[in-house]
Amino acid sequence: MLRPTEGMFFNQLVDPFAVTSMDWAGNIATFSPELLGLKNAVYGDFILGNINRDRLTDMAHGPALIRLRQDIDAGVEMCRQGCEYFSICGGGEPVNKLAENGSFVSTETTYCRMTKMRATDLVLDLLDLLGQRGPELSDAGIRNLGAGLLAGEARIPVAPVG
Ligand code: SF4
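# iron/sulfur cluster complex -> structure
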């Protein structure tokens, strides 16, 4: 992969309060914004508190956030240990893990395959192809490499220089 696994990476969807959501009634949630509005008995409907009643500093230490962090962090750690795309993704989107896998403590989803893995593969394939064929191609030929890859036509000759 392009970046070393120990490289710095910030995934705001797994960092508490990096994304903070509030509904019309003042209920506060964090992590994936889609969590606010979902029902879930295990995580108290993902509501950390209510801005009309609770202090934000108290919500940061409340039982709902502690339980969420525990499971989301465990899922991120599984990703860190097992996924070669971790340095690009940072452990994914919690709401997709829960919706697709039934648990935050999980890794791969259709969402991450389509938006992280496949997209990364395409960019890396394109860079490889560019390294191999760049010198022989015109600007138009280079631009067409991406379209050829997407269409599965990477080996079809493209316009040479000149
Ligand atoms: S691409 Fe998927 S499996 Fe890999 S780190 Fe991201 S969420 Fe985890």
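# post-check
Residues 108 and 146 are 26 Å apart (CA to CA).
The longest helix spans residues 110-133.
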